[in-house]
């Protein structure tokens, strides 16, 4: 079995087949094959510049927003080609939400941050219930229930990040993508986000990019290790080295490059 493959033990949410990503003529990521399981946390790890975030952004077509970016190969969401001509990228991003590295609440009230997505989708009734439910699910309700009219930018960094998770949940997505969601947070706030991820994975498929190997080991069921290879012209290309259960990646990796990164010998 190739290290980038997994046996057919589940119906995947995403299937990546020979995925490559280009920025102009530069191939940033080359030949990724992987299958992402439902209602689990999948972690993407590896050194800087290896394409983790680039691959993550392919899963909800965020790379469409980058000038000269293009995708080769195939990304299937359940049975549908995510890059098919009839697919609406706006609907893709509704179903596949994203939480970014730096908390990015809108300069609006806590309530209006959560209600923003439902309103954009035409929802006018039941917003109070939607906001409360999303804040409960993001483990934030008790901390902000008396601050709903206050500016969200007044919240702490950890609260802002959980607010962004609540905002993503409010439109009832199927998948939540997280790009280094704890890198700007202190250890206490990080623990709260990690605990929240594990609770949310009962209902959502979560894919997280992290530089923190301990975090990947703590929260994820499966881990993909990426590295950057340098070709004969001196250009770096992100490559998937190994994808397996997190327990196996961290205890008995199949590839020496994975072992070298996990043990700190390189990267």
From TrEMBL:
The keyword Glycoprotein does not apply. It comes from Nonomuraea solani. PROSITE patterns: ABC_TRANSPORTER_1 (PS00211), ABC_TRANSPORTER_2 (PS50893). InterPro entries: AAA+_ATPase, ABC_transporter-like_ATP-bd, ABC_transporter-like_CS, P-loop_NTPase, PstB-like. This is Phosphate transport system ATP-binding protein. SMART domains: AAA (SM00382). The lineage of its organism: Bacteria, Bacillati, Actinomycetota, Actinomycetes, Streptosporangiales. GO terms for molecular function: ATP binding; ATP hydrolysis activity; phosphate transmembrane transporter activity. Keywords: ATP-binding, Nucleotide-binding, Translocase, Transport. GO terms for cellular component: membrane. Residues 14-253 form the ABC transporter domain. One of its GO terms (biological process) is phosphate ion transmembrane transport.
